[in-house]
Design goal:
Helix content is 45%, strand content 22%. It has 238 residues and is an alpha+beta fold. The chain has three domains: 3-61, Arc Repressor Mutant, subunit A (Orthogonal Bundle); 74-119, no CATH class; 137-237, SH3 type barrels (Roll), CATH 2.30.30. It is elongated. Residues 6-59 form the Helix-turn-helix type domain. GO terms for molecular function: DNA binding.
Length: 238
C-alpha cells in the first residue's frame, strides 16, 4: 500500500471510532508495522490533521474534521501549479482551458495554508509566441485514446504535401508547438510530424491493428537505440 493510501486509510479508521485506538490496532488493519504507523501519524499531524494522542496511549481524531481530497506538500503543490500554468500557456485551446479549470478546482479543495500557492505562486512560466496550427491537437489526442488510425496531409521540409495513414502513439509538447510520434504506413516506420505542418488530420474508424502497449514498446525500443547510437557517435566525435 502506498503512503498516500495509508494516510487516507488511517484517517478513515479514526473517523469511525470514538475511543482512542492504538498504533498496533491501526497496523493490524493496514497490514503494516507500528513503526510505519508512528511515521504516518506524524506525517498527518504535519499536514494539520487534528489527531490527538501519542504512542502507548492511542489516537483519536477531533470531531468535525473532514479530510481534504488533496493532501499535498508545498513542493508538490508548486509542481502541480507550475505544470498547470505551463499547459495553460502552451497547450491547445481545449487543454489550456482544462488546465485553468484544474487550477480553480485545486484552489477549492486544498487546505487554506496552501491556497496561496495557487493564488500567488512563487514560480512563473516564460511567455511564448504560439505557433499557428490548422489541425486541432485535441483531435489527435482523441485518436490516441481511441487507438484509431489517422489520415494525415502533411507538408514536409521539401514543402510538398503528402497524404499518409499513420498510427498515432504520443503527442509531444514543446515550448512552441507539438510533435506527433506515429507509425507511418507510407514509410513503414516510426516518424515524427510537427502539428504546425499538418494541413489536415482525419480520424478514421479503423482501429490500429497492433496492441497499444506493444506499439508503444516498439517505438520506445527504437527511440532508445537511436539515443544510444547518438551517444556513442558523440563520444567518438569528442
Amino acid at each position: 500500500m502506498r503512503k498516500a493510501e495509508r494516510l487516507f486509510e488511517i484517517v478513515q479508521l479514526l473517523r469511525i471510532v470514538r475511543e482512542p485506538i492504538s498504533a498496533q490496532h491501526i497496523a493490524n488493519e493496514l497490514g503494516s508495522s507500528k513503526r510505519s504507523v508512528y511515521r504516518d501519524i506524524a506525517a498527518l499531524k504535519a499536514q494539520d490533521v487534528p489527531i490527538r494522542g501519542e504512542a502507548g496511549v492511542g489516537y483519536v481524531l477531533e470531531k468535525g474534521f473532514d479530510m481534504p481530497p488533496l493532501m499535498l506538500t508545498s513542493d508538490e503543490m508548486d509542481a502541480a501549479v507550475l505544470g498547470a500554468h505551463w499547459v495553460a500557456s502552451r497547450g491547445e485551446p481545449d487543454l489550456a482551458k482544462a488546465a485553468l479549470n484544474l487550477l480553480a478546482k485545486i484552489e477549492v479543495v486544498v487546505p487554506e495554508r496552501l491556497r496561496a500557492h495557487v493564488l500567488e505562486p512563487a514560480m512563473s512560466i516564460a511567455p511564448v509566441v504560439p505557433t499557428f496550427e490548422v489541425v486541432n491537437s485535441s483531435s489527435l489526442r482523441n485518436a490516441i485514446r481511441r487507438h484509431r488510425k489517422v489520415t494525415l496531409v502533411y507538408e514536409g521540409a521539401s514543402g510538398v504535401p503528402t497524404e499518409r495513414i499513420v498510427w498515432p502513439i504520443l503527442l509531444g509538447y514543446r515550448d512552441a508547438g507539438r510533435i506527433l510520434a506515429a507509425w507511418c504506413e507510407l514509410r513503414n516506420g516510426f516518424r515524427y510530424f510537427r502539428t504546425d505542418r499538418m494541413i489536415s488530420a482525419d480520424i478514421l474508424e479503423q482501429r490500429i491493428p497492433e496492441n497499444a502497449l506493444s506499439l508503444r514498446a516498439r517505438w520506445r525500443s527504437e527511440m532508445d537505440q537511436e539515443r544510444a547510437s547518438y551517444s556513442i557517435q558523440t563520444q567518438k566525435d569528442g
